[in-house]
Each structure stands twice: as C-alpha cells, then as structure tokens.
Amino acid sequence: MKAVGIILAGGSSNKMKELTRKRAAAAMPIAGSYRAIDFALSNMSNSHVPKVAVLTQYNSRSLNEHLNSSKWWDFGRKHGGLYVFTPTITADNSFWFRGTADAIYQNLDFLKKSHEPYVIITSGDAVYKMDYEKVLDYHEEKKADITVVCKTLKEGEDARRFGTVKMDDDMRIHEFEEKPMFAKSNIISTGIYIIRRRLLIDLVEECVEDERYDFVKDILIRYKNLKKIYGYITDEYWSNIATIDSYYKTNMDFLKAEVRNHFFKEYPEIHSKVSDLPPAKYNPGAVVKNSLVASGSIINGTVENSILFKKVFVGNNCVIRNSIILNDVYLGDNTYIENCIVESRGTIRANTRHVGEDGIKVVLEKGERYGM
Amino acid sequence: MRKKEMIAMLLAGGQGSRLGVLTAKVAKPAVSFGGKYRIIDFPLSNCINSGVDTVGVLTQYQPLRLNAHIGIGIPWDLDRNIGGVTVLPPYEKSSNSEWYTGTANAIYQNLEFMESYNPDYVLILSGDHIYKMDYEVMLDFHKEKNADVTIAAMPVPMEEANRFGIVVTDGENRITAFEEKPENPRSNLASMGIYIFRWPVLRDALIKKKDEPACDFGKHVIPYCFEQEKRMYAYEYSGYWKDVGTLGSYWEANMELIDIVPEFNLYEEYWKIYTNGGGLPPQYIAESAVVDRSIICNGAEIYGEVRNSVIGAGVTIGKGTVVRDSIIMQDSQIGESCVVDKAIIAENVKIGDGVTLGIGADIPNKSKPNIYSFGLVTIGENSVIPSNVQIGKNTAISGVTASEDYVGNVLGSGETLIKAGGQA
Q1: pTM
Q2: Number of domain units in chain A
Q3: Dihedral angle of Cα B149, B151, B152, B158, to the nearest 10 degrees
C-alpha cells in the first residue's frame, strides 16, 4: 500500500451527551464486542496500510487503554505500526488541537518522515468496512488532488449533520457545504479522504499560517475550485455515531442479518482487543429473543431486541427491551429496562424501572454491587 | 547467565485414543473444550497465572492444530524476549534418532532446552486435564519441605484407586511408598501427573534411566528417585480436577460448566483461562430461538432451540432444530428441523436439514464398545451428514457421508461410519 493512515479520534460530541463524558467518541462500544475505532483501524490493517497515526485529544484514557497494544490489529510490526498522538507542548506550540487541520499540523513530522506518496484520512467514530486500496486506485485513475468518499443518503435521512457535496458528471466536486440548514444534495461526505502526502503537508502549513484550523472548512471548501477534488461513492454500510440516536440506531442495525453478515461473516474481519471472557451463560429463566449477546454475560431474565455487551449480568425476572446494555453492567433482580442505553460498569439496583418515554434514555447508575 | 527459577515442561504429544474420532486428526491437548477453549489452555493458563513464564510444549502426535493454536504464545502472554513458550517436537540427531518413546524419554531428549534456562526447579505437566492450580503454592510447599521431588496428588474413591499411580504418605506428607496402578491400593491418594523436581535430581534421574525403553515418569523415573531415597513429598490438592480421557468424562466435564454455580467456574476474575481465537463478534439469538441452561460462544447464531448444551464459537443452529445435552464445537453448522440428543459434534461439521441424532435403543458400539458408549453420538471434525437421516446411540461418524451410506436413511445404534475426506 502506498499510503499512510491518519485516524481523527480527537472529537467529543455534545450530542452524545452523557455517553462521551467517560470517553472519546472513537472509544464508544459498538455491536457488543467492538469499539468504534476498531472499524477504521481494521480497514487500515486490512487494506495493508503499514503505518497509522491516531490523533486524539478529548478524554483519551479509555481510547488509550483500548490501544495499549497494537498487535490486535496486526500493527505490532518492526516497520511502521500504530502511533497515538495527543497534543504536546513544544518549544513553538502550546495549544490543544484547534481543529482537524491543526491536529495534522501539530503532527506534521509523522507525515514528513514518511515516504509513502499518499495519506488516507478517516474519522474514528464511523462504522464501516472499506478497502482503501480501491479508493486509491480511483484517486489515481481520476488524477485527483483530493478524493472524498461519499454516500447517498436514503429517503428521509437527515443531511443536516453532515457535509453535503454536489458533483459534476465526471464526479468532480464543485459544491461542498458543511452541515447546511437546508441541504441541496443528498450526497454526503463520509469524512474519508485520500490526498497526496506532499500536498497535504503544503495545504496544512498554508492553512495554519493563515490561522485556519479546520480540514473541511478551510481546506476542502476553500480549495474546491483550485484543486481537483473528486467524490468516490460507496454504497456499502456506513454509519456515523455522533449523536445518541445515531449511536443507538447503528448498534440496532446489527440485529439485521445483512448487517451482521457484512461485518461478522464476510472477509476481511474487524479486529479488536481480545478480552479473554468465557462463553455467555444462559441460566434457567433466561428468555432471549432477537438479541446480540457478547461473551462473559450471564442471563437469568428476559432480553428482547437488545444488545448485551461484554460481561453483562441480567438478574432473575429482569425484562430488557429495545435497549443497549454496555460493558460490565450488573442488573439486579426484577429490573425493567426499555428504550435505554445503560452506561458501562453501571450497577442497577433490584426492582428498578427505566423506560425511555420519548426517545432513548441514557441510564447512568452506580449502585453498590451487592449480592455478588 | 540466563536464569529462571522454575520452568515448565508440558507433555502434549499424546493421541488420547479413547476419545475416538475426536482425536483422529488432532492431539488430545488440542481438542476443543467448553465451546471456545482447547484442553491445553488450562495448564498453559495455570502456568502464566502462577508466574511460570517459560514453558516447553512437547508435541508429537498430529501437532498441526496444536502448533497453530499456541503460535508464539500471545493469548497466554507467553510471547517473551527470554523464555515464553517453545514448541519442542522430536528431532533428528547425528545418531539414534527416535520419536518420544515415553513421557520421561521426551523430557530427556530436551535436556539442553532445560539446561539453557539454568533452572532451580522443573515443573512437569501434562496437557490433558481440566483444572486450575497455582503451581507457585506447590513450589512453596516443595521448598518448605526441602523436597527433591513433589508430586501433586488428590484423593480418589478407593474403588478407583487401582487406575492411578498411588502414593502412600506419612503424617508429614513424605511419600513412603509409590505404587503404579496397584491391585490392592494401600491409599487413595492418586498422582495427578504433576511433578516438581529439583533440577539436578531430574537431570540425574533422566540420564541414569536414559536407556530404559519407553521411559515413563510413573513407571521408571519416580520409582528410581524413590530407590535413591530422594526426599519425595505429596502435595495434596482438593480442587476440581478432571481427566477428560474418555468420551463420557469429556461430555460430563463440559456439561458441568453449565450448572448455575459450576464447580469449575470459568467466570472467576482472578484465575482467567486464556485461549487463542474463539471469534470476536457477539452471538445472535433469533426471534425464533429458545436458549435454556446452556453456554454459547462468540459468533454463534441460534435460530432453533438449545437446551443444556455447550455451543462453540461460530456455530449455526437452524430454525426448528432442537439441541439437547450436546456439545457442538466451533464453526459447525446444523441445518433446520433437526433433533440433536446427547451428541458430541467436533469442529467444522456440516449437518443437513431434518437430521435426527441419538434415537433408538442404547445398543453398545459394535467395533469399539469401550470407546463409543455412554449413549453418545460422536461426529469427527470436518464431517458432513446429509439431510433427512437418522442416527442412533453409541455411534461414531467421520468424513464426508452421503445418503447412500445410510441404509434406509438410518444409521442404527452401535454402528460406526468412517468415510474418507472431510470438508476443508
């Protein structure tokens, strides 16, 4: 592969409310056994990108813990491998990352010391499977300066939280709007870019010199008439988890056979840190329907249309419906949970009831873990 | 100089022929257990949990699966700069090359490996038991007694004592007699095949007994040390320990994992069992599924009914199928509308639709009644079973079978069907 990778994992999203209090969006648990960043990292590894930088800033403890060894994604290599960069104070810089372009600027040495001709940039909070080599082939074929991977939204999907693009017949992007109030196009940018490494260095340096720090606003949009920016349309599954609703929906998508097959059964696989948990255990009284259950869980109650992450304990006579229970949650006897996301490591006391009445309720409960 | 206080030598070369078709192509230590583990995971995890970070694994019989499983030891944290796991197969020498002819002979052939770590103690283990043991505590006992040899031993029912190596001890746990499979046992304390030797004592015994044909620890080395009046002690162990040497005990040990609070508990935090693979994705339990009293591994998809069973990683159970009291190992696919009763189905088996396993009378197996008993149906890895056949009890099947192999679509109780091949 002729490219190095950059995964932008610095962001927090206010729209994730309580859930990103503990962690960066890229460290959000997904589909029972994964973290959001596993998808970008596995895509990099499966596309044979030899060297990847993860740029983090916001609340990165959980993310760093997840990335403490790079061997799970096959990045424990003699050459290349995984680099995790957080902002540091240097002789000539004492800022946090002031934006995505600034994050790249502050780690420009990573790019300058690489020799691969291209850079693949992606975000750490999107769930998708992609062979970047195909995108790079397209990029070369179009002789593009920048290629933006795009997706056509389905009828009824809200484009307002994305960047929307308009392309000509040759797929060259001539309009690019960031989070428009009124979207003129239903084609959105997925935040996956390919760009020549030298060009990226030049653009980022120019940009920061101008005190501009955002990759989309200050590079893609400002340069769209000057540089050849092309769109590459993907029609495979892609979902961004930047809001509570989209996080909930993305997880629930895995209850559909076609989504599970795409991610779990089709080659190549998504890698993650191995957690050494025993098989899930179904005790008498367990009734499980249309649900995903991760390893280490012990079930004594009813679980329907839900996702149990790793090491969830479901007590006797519990009922869990349409909910996501994150890692290592203990649910005491007789609890009732509906339309909720239960935050990880929580302990729900026996006989508690949580129902998301209008929308999804986030449950943060730190009861004493008794009876264990 | 390199130095490790204690290194472990793990004997993993045996076939385990009493497991029948399960070990036709894999060594017993590599046989799957509890859905996602392999038998060797237990001693390997015990090693790392006990602080033993240097392990030689002696392989001989069908080592491919074992080698692939162990790799460089990453799952057990045994990928080390110095020490870690080393797979030790028999090798050619300038004169008298030979296979490993016995347990002690295998260790003798690897004297140089042990020497290179300059150990004070050597721990001898076998790769075919299910248990959790802190070898460090056993070493403390060994040191405290100033012993030359310590043998882990556990009480067994008196009537079974004649199947084991029996130790007789004094009030101080010092061994006063050692009897290999005695007709009239004088004690019920059975050797578990776990030994700690002072390295010079082991080296001396192995060299002295090197010309013994099929040199074995229980038969030759331990009696030799005893004759030499070495200080030999029994370390009494009373926890869960299971020899899964027969299909019956293998099935039973798996079933015990399902108990509400199992005697052998995989869910304890402080003594984790590590393994390689097992698959990452969560398991999916469909709308049509019923799961009761079972353990199910990652990546399994259940559309049918599963009761009192152990389901391995990546297994699919089709709609309308009922699985009871069975072990289904990783990546096997069971079609729709099947009935599976008391079966052991090895890895990567494909079963068609409308198949019934485990029906009819409990007739002993005609060719190997000692192996295929307990009323079990045993299916070897990579086998294929066509749709709409019925298979009786105490049966064994291996290889790609087709409808014409089943007379009147039935394989009666007590029959054995071994065909060539197997799906990749």
Answers
A1: 0.94
A2: 2
A3: -160
